Amino acid sequence: MVAEAQTPVRTQVPSRLSMRLGLRGWVYAGRYPAERYLYILHRLCGLGLILYLPLHVWVTGRRLQGPEAWQQTMAILSRPVFVAGEILVLAAFVFHAINGFRLLFGHLGCALGRPEYPVYPYPVALHRQRRLTTALMVLAGAFLAAGVWGLLTK
Amino acid sequence: MAEITGNPEGSVPEGGILTLRVARYDPERDRAARPQEWKVKILPGMTVLDALFAVKEEQDGSLAFRCSCRMGVCGSCGMFINGKPRLACNTQVNELGPVVEVAPLPNHDAIKDLVPDLALTFRRHRAVLPYIIRNDVAEMESPTREFGQTPEELARYVQFSYCLKCSLCLAACPTVSTSEQFLGPQALAQAYRFVADTRDAGLGERAGVVDASHGVFGCHLAGACSEACPKGVDPALGIQLLKRSLFVGPPHRAPAQVVSAFPEGYRTPEAAERPKAPPPSV
């Protein structure tokens, strides 16, 4: 007890300052290259599609309530704001699906190249995937354009 | 860093004045970071670490930061510099423009000013068993000979063995920013460094740690870790190859065996057969 009494006691234990970024670390890509922005877009599209799913189930469920309810719902959905929403859903779906293929290739270690001796300028595997990334994004753009054309001319 | 991040247009010439804006934190009095600015005269070849030393020696001795080698080898001086995690000793101020903003590493606790707490990084590193694991315990405990490994086999993992444990990749990783459980790019890339080593047979043991949602499957391939790495380790590649190893096994089918011992002083067995030089005549 005496020894304890003689030990200097800090009145306030020094704390640590948490620099954890939280959600800001997800949504802010700052000065990182394209793949980091694709990461944000992929997650936002995924979130949007999940939020859209209950609405989609509700809309198709209206079919069970008879032809009148269905016609009424279709009339509402033909308004420009909902058509714009449909285009957004289509864009999210196309991007999420095609970027998902890129990620799937990456997760299986494909199209990333092999490890190399790190000689400056240092090799980065995702840079080796840029041609595939560009091709897939062009493909996504083509699918989206075709889909929008179909939506607007139906 | 894969590219030269120079900014010649925004750079300040030697002899010019640099504004150094530092996010400071004193645990005895602060509850949040507070910015403080100093003006520093730019000298030839000045790095951000040199600028911090200039402040500490001439203007404010209370400024705290961690460093050791001053040549990009020890990984002690990781900081958040102008929006990216970088090594202060490896970053020239003339790449950054007239205002240099320095803060402690994101996704870490700051102990004081620019000193991050790296204890969690090292705990994550230890969690992936970062050493050679083999079944022949007797040979490991009392080695008799070397394990064979070709240069091609070395090339499969040598990139990942350059890791400094500077924690810049964890500061850049978006998953680490929200999940303290995630092992992070540093530890996972080091797990692959040993999995890909032909002398190792420890994938099964490591799988218990890395084959989890907070392990390899917490990586969503944002690639920021590889951009931030100051030594070209490319942790994102290591993590993806580790995922593949969990599905299809390590790159080698069986761990390397011990090789025949060469005669003492010879690099090849045939060397012992060659005629020896005559004894000196003088």
Features:
heterodimer, A: about 150 residues, mainly alpha, 3 helical TM bundles of succinate and fumarate reductases, about 70% helix, disordered N terminus, B: about 280 residues, alpha+beta, Ubiquitin-like (UB roll), Fumarate Reductase Iron-sulfur Protein, Chain B, domain 2, 9 helices
Characterise the protein shown here.
- The complex is a heterodimer of chains A (154) and B (282).
- Chain A is mostly helical.
- In chain A, helix 3 packs across helix 5 (80-107) and helix 5 (80-107) runs antiparallel to helix 7 (130-152).
- The longest helix of chain A has 28 residues, at 34-61.
- Chain A is extended and about 70 Å long.
- Chain A has helices spanning 2-6, 23-27, 34-61, 67-77, 80-107, 125-128, 130-152, and one strand spanning 17-18.
- Chain A starts with a helix and ends with a helix.
- Chain A has one domain (33-113, 120-152): Up-down Bundle (3 helical TM bundles of succinate and fumarate reductases).
- Mean pLDDT of chain A is 90; it is low at 1-11.
- With 282 residues, chain B is α+β, with helices and mostly antiparallel strands.
- Chain B folds into 2 domains: 8-117, Ubiquitin-like (UB roll) (Roll), CATH 3.10.20; 119-248, Alpha-helical ferredoxin (Fumarate Reductase Iron-sulfur Protein, Chain B, domain 2, Orthogonal Bundle), CATH 1.10.1060.10.
- Chain B has helices at 48-58, 119-127, 137-141, 151-155, 168-172, 184-195, 203-210, 224-228, 235-248, and strands at 17-24, 34-41, 78-81, 84-87, 99-103, 109-112, 115-117.
- Chain B has a 5-stranded mixed sheet with strand order 2-1-5-3-4. In chain B, strands 6-7 form a two-stranded antiparallel sheet.
- In chain B, strand 6 and strand 7 form a beta hairpin.
- In chain B, helix 2 runs parallel beside helix 6 (184-195) and helix 6 packs across helix 9.
- The longest helix of chain B is centred in the C-terminal third of the chain and has 14 residues, at 235-248.
- The termini of chain B are far apart.
- Mean pLDDT of chain B is 91; it is low at 1-9.
- The interface between A and B is large, with 45 and 58 residues.
